Amino acid sequence: MIRYRSGIDRVTGKPLFGFAHVCQSVGVILRTVPTERLMLLDFGFVGVRHIGRNMVAPVVLALYRDARAAVRAWEPEYDITRFTLGRAEATGLLALGTSGTYYPEGRFGNFDIREPVTASFTLSGVATAPVVGA
User: Fold this and answer.
1) Which is nearest to 55 in space by CA: 83, 35, 31, 74?
2) Model pTM?
3) Which distant-in-sequence residues (6+ apart) come within 8 Å of 54 by Cβ?
């Protein structure tokens, strides 16, 4: 029996299960600046410093690198293998598309059960719920 993570959607208050819960977690990681959380000073995404810069190749690569490192450090159930720059607008809106592997029991150290997944995350601009694909 697979032990899927469950919780509450922070916007709607409705129950969340499985990869939708992981997406909410990744969204929090990618929108949190390190030192913002009092008891977890290193929690978050240092790539926030790239937001607002010209999205030239070295900056985009650094953004991807920092996002993968943050998710890998704080979310054991999602291993990102591919990024796409979803949206980048002069108004400051920045979104990343991701593809990777979802491990429903990764938080327990069980990486035998896996599913390929895709999701999109807004890093800045209007906060929206992550878009989950299969």
Assistant:
1) 83
2) 0.85
3) none
